Every structure is written in structure tokens, then in C-alpha cells.
Amino acid sequence: NCVHPGLLLICTVASKVWDAETKPIDFLCNRATRRDLNITKCSGITTLSTPVQLPCTELHVTSWENKSHQEKRGDIGASLRLLIEGVKVLRGLSHPGCMASLLQRLENNINNYLLILTNLQLSGPTVSPSLSCIPRSSQSLRTVLLRYNQLISGKLEQFMVNLENRCTNSVTQQRF
């Protein structure tokens, strides 16, 4: 039983790749993993060919704390869906290499966040996603990326921090 050296190398490399099937609880409990999904910009490209609707990023702590986990998830999800629609439109247009790569990564990251949010096990009644603001548009790449990062580092991060008590429970349950 001889194993082909090339196949062995592929298997070794594949075993080192981060598990794409990570559970939402793993994402919830690891801030570094959440930060790995941040996006950098392309140098020299500042204006987009079409406006993109911006996500709702303002976080009013008092009203945010009064929302249920379901409402928070709905708010963040609605903002991510709004943004991804604009990114998909932009991706459908012709863009140079860096911009095409950046838009692909942004779309992938937003999809990952939406999957994680959707699969989080939350108690309480299901709430329809709704925006917490009247969306504005921008053709500035810098503004779009800034708002995306504000949404992720603001509302989403605050939501994850609110759910961190599940981390110790999850770790305890996995040990037994």
C-alpha cells in the first residue's frame, strides 16, 4: 500500500486548513476569528460605479439593550442583506483585479456573517428582520467599507458580547 507523495502533501495541507464548517458557537466565542473577516481597501480606487445602500450602524446603547436577541439578530441581518445586494450589483459590473477581489471577499464575508446569524440558536419568538434606520447611499468605497466595519465591530460585536455567557456553557457541555 504505497501512497502517492503528491496526494500525501495535499492531505497534509488540507488538514491544516481552518474548518469551514465551524459552528456559530465557535465564532461567537472567538473574537480573533470574528476580526479575521475584516476587509482592507484597494489603493487608488475610491469611487464606485454605482451607489451602494449603507447598513445601519448607529448603536444607541439604551435602545439596543432593550431589544431581544431575536430583534438584534434581525437588525444586523437586515443591514447585512441591504449591503450584500449593493455588493452583488457592483460585482456584476466590470472591475479591475483588486476591486473584483475585494468585492468577492466582501460578499463572501457578508454571506458568512448571515449564515452564522441565521444558525445561532436563540430562544424566544422569531422576529422579522427590520432596519433600524433609513438607509443612505454612497459611491465612496471608503465609506462603504467604513460602514461595513462599523456594523461588524459595533452592533455585531456587541451582540456577540451579549451572548458570550453561552461560551462557558458550551465548553462545559463539550467536555462531558
Automatic annotation (TrEMBL):
Entry keywords, A to Z: Disulfide bond, Hormone, Secreted, Signal
Annotated InterPro entries: 4_helix_cytokine-like_core, EPO_TPO, Thrombopoietin
Leader peptide range in chain numbering: 1-22
Coarse class of the protein's main subcellular location: secreted
A GO cellular component entry from the record: extracellular region
Subcellular location: Secreted
GO terms of molecular function: cytokine activity; hormone activity
GO BP field: cell population proliferation
Nucleotide-binding in keyword set: no
Matching SUPFAM superfamilies: 4-helical cytokines
Keyword Cell membrane (UniProt): no
Similarity-based family: Belongs to the EPO/TPO family.
Protein name, UniProt field: Thrombopoietin
